Amino acid sequence: MCSLCRKHPESTVHLFLQCPFALSIWNWFSSVIRLQVNLSSIKDVLSLANRGWNSQCQVVIIAAIISIVNNIWLCRNSVRFENINPSLTSTIALIISSTSLAGLAACAGIFRNSQGANLGCFGFNIGIANALFAEILGIILAIECAFDRKWWSNCILKIRDMQIIVSHVFREGNFVADKLASL
């Protein structure tokens, strides 16, 4: 049984091309490139890269296809092995960030206490980088800030249980971090 839709037998064709979750992602991708994607087979999907794109577009199209297939697989594994239901929005955000070419990037962080009061914030222009580098640098800078302010000593007691989750929030969803990153 398909881990994502729980309605059809799981096969590679179903999982990557026919499952409603996968179809939503392919429909989103079709709307972005303004072309209908032939979902008859993975080979047909990959043939999309041979439509006379310039070299940069072709690289992005191939990267997007690979990222879509990879993220569908990761979502399937999250459901199957971790009992975590994937969000279509966050999956698409991961595809966008993993597919995008490097450009001007920045990172920002906000420190809040348990009541949500602002304890401090930072913003840092990175220069030319991709989204993954910006996210990781943001985590590193946040840890360094916490350490410098002696907040880290409080964290050491809890570090055994610490999990870091990198998630993409669209600019409109995090106004403060967006403004910090654009300074």
TrEMBL record:
The keyword Lipid metabolism is assigned to this record: no
Transmembrane intervals: 12-33, 53-75, 87-111, 117-143
SUPFAM superfamilies hit by this protein: Ribonuclease H-like (SSF53098)
Transmembrane keyword on record: yes
Key words, A-Z: Membrane, Transmembrane, Transmembrane helix
Name of this chain's protein: Ribonuclease H protein
